[in-house]
Structure formats: structure tokens, C-alpha cells
Amino acid sequence: MRNLSIASENGAYKKLLDADPTRSARCKSTVSRYEFMTSNYAECLNGRLRYARRLPVCTLLECVRTLVGQWFYDRRRYALARTHVLTETAATKVLASVEDGQTMNVQAISATKFKVTYGMKHYTVDLMGRKCSYQKFNLGLIPCSHATAAISKANKHIYSYVWRYYTTENLREMYSREMTTIAHPDDWDVPLEVSSRVVLTPHNPSIVCSRCQQTGHNRATCTQHIPISQSSQTGSCNDNERSSSRARRTHRSSICRQPGHTRPTYPNRPA
């Protein structure tokens, strides 16, 4: 920051100091939008439906149903086969936090509050409120390394401090529903108020080809044959235009810029 204050010429250093810390510092954030708490699921689905988007709406919806149904089936099988209390991602993070917390010094403040020291830094862990001054436990809702050290000091079970949405049981409940297939339109039970509606096609202006004067395409995609009389007439007109343009063209000398002669036939050319 000191180097930035020295090199700053357009007030960038002052703008950083005046900026809201909730936009840049995780410890000041008020929302859980970090690490695996946020994902780009919309773009993932958009990429999988890249070719299906060109299909009609009904076919597109069937592709979406098939894709989501396959995802639910795969995740349901995974959840039923998993025997661990936590999901794979949560269990991996808890294990890493436990390994990092083994080198920390923990001092009890009360039955639920602890002071965790790591190097020259100190953090306060509140097991009752499930909070840590490092803020990672507050946002991710998975015990950080300071929290796991405090939990071990209190002789508590670490998995009981993990948010229940990271448990395998919740994963099974989430993907327990089945995506049934869509029945044939003849078997649909359509209400009378819906079937009685008259739906007209949208009015789109027709494209007229400037070559054959037909609708539905333009000149670039026209495949109609032009009659011989029209093509010959068009060709003769073009020939007349080219001949008239040649007749109007006047030769000028590149030396004196006068008409009637050229550079090789320039009369005043020195010997």
C-alpha cells in the first residue's frame, strides 16, 4: 500500500481507502459468495444446451428435462452409495482444516469461546454462535482451521458443527425426486379453458427477393433461374454501359496533363 501511495498519480490510493471494504475483504463481507458457496451453474447449463437451443421450444424443453433427469439420477446413485456423514467436498475441507489446526495454540476463554494463536496472529472462536474472527467459518459454515482447533480443545465432534446442507442425508433428500417423462399430447388432460383458446401465429413481414420477386428468401440465397430474355437484356444493358464509359474516357498525358496524347507521344519531349 505504501508503494501504491507513492506511485499513485490519479488518486487511485485514495479511492481504495474510501471504497467499501465489503467489496474486497472477505472478513467484512455480509454474503456467502466465496469458494464453493457460489457457482456458474447457469453457464454450465447454457453450454450443455448449445445445440438444443436451435430446436423448437417443445423439443428444447424435452432436452432440458432429459438432461436434468440424468443429472438427478447420477447424483441420487452417488448419494445412496456414499456412507460418509458429509459429502465429498465438505469432508475434504474439514480434513484439511483439521490438519492445519494441529499446529495452533488454543486457550480457553469460557466453555464455548476460545483464543486461537497462529504465529503472531490471534483469533477468537465462538462455538455457541459458530463464529470465528477469521470469518471463514461464518461464511462457509464449515469449521475453519481455527474452529477445528477449538473444537478439539473442547472435546466436541467436528461434524456436528458442519452445516446440515453439507451432509449426505441432505444430499439424498435433495435428489430423491424423479424426473418422469412427458406423456404423448393425445394423453394430456388439457382444461377446456385452455383448449378453447385460439392461438394465431405471429405476424412476420415476408422477405421479397429483388432478383425473382418471390417471398421467403433474398437475392443471396435465390435459386430461381432467370429467363434468357431477361438475362440477355440485362447483359446488353451492361455492355452498353461499359461501351459508353469507354467512349467517355479521355487519354491524358502524365507529363503535361493535357488531353489528346500520352507520355510516349508527348510532342515537347526532350531528345
UniProtKB/TrEMBL annotation:
Basic residues bias: where?
A: 245-254
Region listing for Disordered, in residue ranges: 230-271
Keywords attached to this Swiss-Prot or TrEMBL record, sorted alphabetically, are: Metal-binding, Zinc, Zinc-finger
Q: Where is the SWIM-type domain?
A: 123-155
Please give one Gene Ontology molecular function term for this protein. zinc ion binding
User: What PANTHER family does the record point to?
Assistant: MUTATOR TRANSPOSASE MUDRA PROTEIN, POLYPROTEIN, PUTATIVE-RELATED
Q: What is this protein called?
A: SWIM-type domain-containing protein
